[in-house]
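Form 7-S
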Amino acid sequence: MNKFAQYPFAARVFQARLILTLVVLAMLALVATPLTSAQTFMFNRADFVTGKGPAVLAVGDFNGDGHMNVVTGNNDTVNTVSVLLGKGDGTFAPHVDYAVGAAVTGIAVGDFNNDGKLDIVIVYGFNDARVGVLLGNGDGTFQEPLKSTVAGFQGGSIAVGDFNGDGKLDVAALVARCGPFPID
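Output:
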């Protein structure tokens, strides 16, 4: 006969301690053992050559094949944008460079002339920042950049969107202006 049966309170305390001990041991086993349902992520790195000194990048389907392509703005001595056409398997064709005349500090893509082909817009230059657009030909190649007048002293980032609600893409460029400003 169980001697705790005579003492119901003692039996409940013993039972509660036993359950608590088992719960603690189960938690320790769970924490000490790696979870079998944990996910492991493996990232394969691949390097692709661009123009010298890539500083900014954007993506888009420049040749209409359904695969993402990459364009980099290069800000070293070459002053180019590099276009790398995607093959659809995570790799890219060798880059094609387009001279822009100064270091690229901002880059974005959009269809700026409404021809159904993606174009590239850039901010370039440090001492005479400008905005330029490279119109896309639809086959992954681009025309020489259409260059704006001087926009500011130092170039920065760029963004595109329909800011005024007219259904056409607009460009917002961040450039610093230096010099005297008239005070009213």
